[in-house]
């Protein structure tokens, strides 16, 4: 969906006075539109009995404006997709088993009257429109024309998969029998010999070029080389046919211009075709025979095209599902389990004369098993790199792993903070109704949300203790960027590699270092930031200094050693300007700044014991500040990289009567700025 209303939030319920007349929804009549490829719209009461229509979910593109007369009283302006792609999609819907009897389709770029009064009325009904739809059809590449225009690589991938669309279609569906039949046909068309009998079996089962490897994870040995493996299999056939091509090459290519530099017994030396030249007529037939024998190259081309296409489609799904309003749309589909998805690039290449009655779009079943998420192959960018480099790289699993994670497994924090939005307050409007904080939606307009820091500050204010802690650990995770702006707990760049499920698991353990049932475990406060006596606007967040008060059960204090230069090096990158601003600058070597590490879980026994909780030892918050003033900031970089001695620090258990009460390195809570 493409709408971005500058004043009113989407999906907001209509006011009583606006409900006096039945809302009429504008729909595209599919059959009449396809008759001459001219958009034909109709109006129907949204509450009309037996009204059936498909609602499209997609992301916007950036094309030149196309103006169309809807024939229902207004002109639509389209910049998100090409009309030709939309017509192809409409035609495909008329052939799809579940949708071919549905007469109408709703797409916001066409079906929303952009005149202010009319626009607002439709925006108020947006959630109802998706809720009333017979099916919600996700089309992650409806902006196909934009994808092709913006990237040569995109265009090459789309065109490269043209010949193998049916293979990709059945691969996404997981239709193994149809894939097997297509692969046998491919081997026949590529003239892969049937003799010896082991040749085809080895190609299908012991290379990464066919469905078995597309769908099954197989870890390879470190020294495995896919090129040599394929060459080795090809040698099985080559040994029986090499003589014929050697004779041919001797008779036809003896005048090679590279003969003095390179002597070769290959049937047709690859260097022969380095410089383009027209072959003589008498060897055209022989070249045709050589092309038939070049099945190794065809295998690689097919495999590469299918793999690149599947990875491209997975990226499109991730991009589409990361839009804040798309998140709202597929969660509406979750209620009736009526989400289907399709790719525009398929419609242009499938032979329209070969559609069968059982042709179906891809259905996403919200009730299916999540077992595929238990595979670690594509958990993050690093694991994905290892999987692609040292295994069969099962792109079938990659695609469905992406679908399941994006549509069913994102946490509230991931949805609201990792999504893409043109207005930050839309993050709340779209995701609050999907969470336990739904009752807060009516307050959003009063929150003065204008950037990501204001989003995080409000989350620290309204969320549960567990969610607040999760956000704090995310903000302090390794590779999270902190660039010297207060408040440090809300201005860091969130790490894309953060494993949220790990911290959630840690916080659920009995050894959790925080009392999740105590509201005072983490609380957000603010105080005037102006120190010059000037009048300030109490509603202006820029004039306030925010801090979190955090109460752990235990923490570690790094031992001070004046001779340890690593401590000095670490403090040097911990935003000196901020420590001075907060009045905690290092006055002398006798009163150095303190470094504290607050872990997610407590130690069960004494220092040095090996316990199960070691798995979570990387989850901790590093603070730099002063026990004297109880003023702290989050460290700019992970202490793991710059000051690993934290593991040797002094363990302090809050409330432990056995701890030395006279030490200055104690606190029952920490004020983090």
UniProtKB/TrEMBL annotation:
InterPro entries referenced in this protein's UniProt entry, alphabetically: HET, HetReg/Transcr_Mod
Domain of life of the native organism: Eukaryota
Secretion signal, residue range per the UniProt entry: none
Any Pfam family matching the protein: HET
Domain Heterokaryon incompatibility: 53-139
Name of the molecule in the record: Heterokaryon incompatibility domain-containing protein
Lineage: Eukaryota, Fungi, Fungi incertae sedis, Mucoromycota, Mucoromycotina
């Amino acid at each position: 969906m493409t709408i971005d209303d500058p004043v009113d939030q989407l999906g907001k319920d209509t006011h009583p006075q606006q409900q006096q007349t039945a809302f009429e929804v504008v729909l595209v009549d599919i059959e009449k539109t396809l008759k001459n490829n001219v958009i034909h719209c109709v109006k129907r009461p949204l509450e009309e009995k037996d009204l059936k229509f498909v609602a499209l979910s997609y992301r916007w593109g950036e094309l030149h404006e196309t103006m169309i007369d809807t024939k229902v009283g207004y002109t639509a302006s389209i910049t998100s997709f090409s009309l030709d792609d939309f017509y192809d999609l409409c035609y495909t819907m008329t052939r799809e088993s579940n949708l071919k009897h549905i007469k109408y389709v709703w797409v916001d770029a066409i079906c929303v009257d952009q005149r202010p009064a009319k626009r607002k009325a439709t925006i108020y009904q947006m959630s109802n429109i998706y809720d009333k739809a017979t099916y919600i059809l996700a089309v992650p590449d409806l902006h196909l024309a934009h994808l092709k225009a913006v990237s040569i690589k995109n265009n090459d991938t789309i065109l490269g998969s043209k010949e193998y669309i049916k293979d990709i279609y059945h691969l996404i569906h997981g239709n193994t029998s149809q894939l097997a039949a297509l692969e046998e046909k491919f081997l026949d068309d590529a003239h892969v010999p049937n003799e010896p009998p082991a040749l085809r079996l080895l190609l299908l089962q012991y290379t990464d070029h066919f469905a078995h490897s597309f769908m099954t994870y197989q870890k390879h040995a470190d020294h495995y080389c896919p090129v040599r493996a394929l060459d080795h299999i090809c040698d099985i056939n080559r040994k029986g046919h090499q003589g014929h091509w050697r004779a041919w090459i001797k008779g036809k290519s003896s005048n090679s211009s590279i003969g003095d530099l390179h002597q070769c017994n290959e049937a047709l030396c690859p260097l022969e075709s380095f410089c383009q030249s027209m072959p003589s007529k008498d060897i055209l037939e022989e070249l045709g025979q050589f092309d038939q024998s070049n099945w190794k190259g065809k295998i690689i081309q097919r495999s590469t095209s299918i793999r690149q296409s599947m990875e491209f489609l997975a990226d499109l799904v991730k991009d589409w599902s990361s839009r804040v309003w798309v998140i709202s749309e597929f969660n509406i589909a979750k209620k009736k389990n009526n989400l289907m998805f399709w790719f525009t690039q398929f419609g242009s290449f499938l032979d329209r004369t070969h559609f069968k009655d059982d042709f179906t779009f891809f259905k996403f079943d919200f009730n299916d098993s999540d077992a595929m998420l238990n595979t670690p192959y594509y958990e993050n960018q690093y694991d994905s790199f290892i999987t692609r480099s040292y295994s069969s790289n099962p792109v079938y699993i990659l695609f469905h792993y992406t679908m399941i994670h994006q549509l069913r497994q994102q946490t509230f924090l991931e949805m609201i903070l990792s999504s893409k939005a043109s207005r930050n307050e839309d993050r709340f409007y779209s995701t609050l109704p999907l969470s336990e904080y739904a009752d807060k939606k009516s307050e959003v307009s009063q929150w003065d949300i204008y950037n990501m820091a204001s989003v995080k500050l409000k989350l620290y204010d309204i969320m549960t203790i567990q969610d607040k802690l999760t956000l704090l650990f995310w903000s302090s995770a390794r590779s999270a960027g902190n660039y010297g702006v207060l408040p440090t707990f809300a201005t860091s760049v969130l790490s894309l590699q953060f494993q949220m499920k790990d911290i959630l698991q840690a916080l659920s353990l009995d050894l959790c270092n925080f009392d999740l049932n105590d509201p005072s475990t983490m609380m957000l406060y603010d105080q005037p930031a102006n120190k010059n006596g000037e009048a300030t606007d109490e509603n202006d967040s820029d004039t306030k200094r925010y801090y979190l008060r955090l109460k752990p059960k235990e923490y570690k204090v790094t031992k001070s050693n004046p001779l340890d230069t690593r401590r000095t090096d670490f403090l040097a990158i911990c935003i000196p300007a901020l420590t001075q601003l907060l009045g905690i600058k290092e006055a002398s070597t006798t009163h150095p700044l303190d470094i504290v590490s607050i872990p997610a879980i407590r130690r069960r026994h004494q220092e040095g014991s090996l316990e199960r909780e070691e798995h979570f030892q990387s989850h901790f918050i590093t603070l730099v500040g002063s026990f004297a003033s109880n003023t702290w900031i989050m460290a700019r970089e992970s202490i793991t990289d710059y000051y690993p001695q934290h593991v040797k620090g002094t363990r302090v258990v809050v409330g432990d009567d056995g701890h030395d009460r006279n030490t200055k390195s104690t606190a029952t809570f920490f004020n983090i700025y």
